[in-house]
Amino acid sequence: METSENKELFLGGPLKVLKEQQADVRLKSLSSERDVAAHKLILSARSEVFKKFLQPDICKATSTLETITISELTHEGLLAFVDFIYSDGSKLNELAKSHVMSIYRVAEKYKIPHLGDLCRNEIISSLNSWNALKFLEFAQVPYDYALSNAALAAIKNNKVTISNSAEFKDFVVNHPNLTVEIVKAISAKDK
């Protein structure tokens, strides 16, 4: 009979053992002097960018720990990111959800597509009339087709509320090209 405890022991056992071993790299955010201990092998296994960056160093023993600064994350976001890297990758924890936009950017930068997918899904599930404009803008660089379309759909579904908001007036001034896309999307729906 399968139990969640057995599954946790199976999935978490190797990582638990590794976490108990001495870390060989430190990750740091710009917002804090505190760092987070990690292992080059785990980072390399989860990220092609870390793999290319750290590959020559994986087998090399040194007495000083290398520090990698991840400028896009706060310390709390960094903790959530590292926790995900060491997890089974099935879901985002609550801390990661509270830093989903910055973690999404890090997933893109460090080529961790599964993490990016989970972040995108979390953002899409949280779309509403109050954040749709922000997420439409967010989806443009780098361009994320699914996120952009989901934000446009939320804007279309909430067009009266959004078009009467002060935020929309600012958005029109700051993002005229996206405003044209919104108008096209709303017009297409009304036909």
From TrEMBL:
Pfam families: BTB. Pathway: Protein modification; protein ubiquitination. InterPro entries: At1g01640-like (IPR044784), BTB/POZ_dom (IPR000210), SKP1/BTB/POZ_sf (IPR011333). One of its GO terms (biological process) is protein ubiquitination. It comes from the Eukaryota. Residues 23-94 form the BTB domain. May act as a substrate-specific adapter of an E3 ubiquitin-protein ligase complex (CUL3-RBX1-BTB) which mediates the ubiquitination and subsequent proteasomal degradation of target proteins. This is BTB domain-containing protein. It comes from Microthlaspi erraticum. The lineage of its organism: Eukaryota, Viridiplantae, Streptophyta, Embryophyta, Tracheophyta.
